[in-house]
Amino acid sequence: MVPYLFMGFGALLVATALMVVLHRNPVTSALFLVLSFCSLAGIYLLLQAEFLGFVQIIVYAGAIMVLFLFVIMYLNLPHDVEHGAHIALRRGIGWMVGALLLLFSLLLARRGWSPGPEAALLPGAEHGNAGAIGRALYSRYLFPFEITSMLLLVAMVGAIVLTKTRRPAGEERP
Amino acid sequence: MTALWSNAIFQVALWATVKVAIILGVLLGVVTYLIFAERKICGHMQARTGPNRVGPLGLLQTPLDVVKLLFKEEFIPAQANKVVFHIAPVLAVFPAIVTFSVIPLGPPPMFVVTDVNVGLLVFLAMSSLGVYAITLAGWSSNNKYALLGGLRSAAQMISYELALGLSTIPVILRAGTLSLVGIVDSQAGTYLIPGTKLALPSWGILHWYLVLPFVIFLVCSFAETNRAPFDLPEAEGELVAGFHTEYSSMKWAMFFLGEYFNMIVICSIMITLFFGGWHGPFMDVLGPVFGPLLGLGWFLLKLGVFLFFFIWVRWTFPRLRYDQLMNFGWKVLLPAAIANVLIAAVWLYWRANA
Asked: Three-class SS of residue B191?
């Protein structure tokens, strides 16, 4: 049962991820990205990482992508109408990187895949993995965790500073 | 064939399917009469009688409204994004129905579809997906009023989701689990008020550090269901009908259905988190067969009270202004929720180590 579900979610993930890149309408691309996040959450569920799976939906599909959509709709971006040398250069680089990636994955596939050693569940993860993740985050990975939170704080303050335009004294607000 | 019937996975799937079918069927009936109740209650609040012409006491009014909606002409704007325009109403109903699979309607295992160990997160994930329905409906209609309604809803629901999520954390801290079945279990029995002989049911709301989270959750749930006084996405005084301006016939009815489904879901979650779920008196007296049934009864009774409260609030308070709504969400509810997480954490830690 699980291998078939994995194949289904994996195929959905790849297909939707491709559509994100290939579709010309930015809103449709964003919607396919939401779908690909949801299929990724499905794969997490199959790995018995329920906490990660649903947090993936809450954070990425539910919050971040809504903001993306919000911005795209607000700007009312036209369909992909860029032309000229600039876009040709970008396309060329894209094709090259894609070809390299395909080459590497073919080389890897020729060496033969084999599943690695099966990772053991974290201690205490048998009755739901929220507690296990919390324990790991606040003990073993405390330093990376704190660094990440500092990074987010800096980004947040930066966003506020950027949106607050400085006006010379005495100038009227528009 | 017998091998299939005794297969454990097949058994689980079969029972889940049967329960889902029953819940879905009952829900559709409940929503029909919830709308009727809303119109009746609203009528009496405004010194009218409400619908009373179709059928005895007007009871056939809403079922026939459904029939009417099914047969109405459907209009799709020429410049609309057709695919998204069709998907949006489905998204309005789907997340609410999914959430029902984790709500313990009565004592397990009979009245629970499935006990996911992160049940509360399922609810939060699905309510965060609910934003898409309104946002996409507003955008795909190619109508500026609809777009404004959709954008408002995106901003409003994201803002209030934060406070909603944070207000559930003290409950999780107390129960020590994210499973909704576990959270209900943690509210079983009674506790003595310290220093007295007065016993209170161990419901969440009767613990002092869970009162403020309940109030925050209640306010946010009005915003999450887009009901008055937070129905800014449709605000008919300013935006014609907001996000569903261009919708007609059954597609419009799907949004309507979604709103009432969401109302039932959020009331059920509120009961599960703060009002002891299906726990109530006299359940152990009735024995193993009727006891659980009484549990289901207690749950439905509490649900009825909360649904009445939702309707009551809708016809009592005027709509907020948009900037007031945002200020209230970000500058009042969110800091209050964060402060309460800290207070509850410190209190529970102190009590555990005292």
From this structure: strand
Domain that holds residue B28: 1-69
Residues of chain B with pLDDT under 50: none
Q: Among 3.40.50.300, 1.20.120.1200, 2.60.40.10, 1.10.760.10, what is the CATH number of A1-76?
A: 1.20.120.1200
CA distance B282 to B276: 14
- ipTM passes above 0.90: no
Residues of A in contact with B164 (CB under 8 A): none
Residues in chain A with CB shorter than 8 Å from the CB of B136 are 31, 69
Residue A112 clears pLDDT 90, i.e. is over it: no
Percent of residues, chain A, with pLDDT higher than 70 = 79
Query: How much is the pTM?
Result: 0.83
Nearest by CB to residue B118, choosing from A50, A61, A69, is A50
pLDDT computed for residue B97 by the predictor: 86
Residue B200, SS3 per DSSP: strand
Say how far apart CA B260 and CA B271 lie, in whole Å. Answer: 17
> pLDDT by residue (tens digit) across B173-204?
888 888 888 888 888 877 777 777 777 777 87
d(CA A17, CA A6): 16
Instruction: Pick the residue from chain A with its C-alpha nearest to B152.
Output: A70
- Cβ within 8 Å, pair A73-B158: no
At B201 the three-state DSSP class reads strand
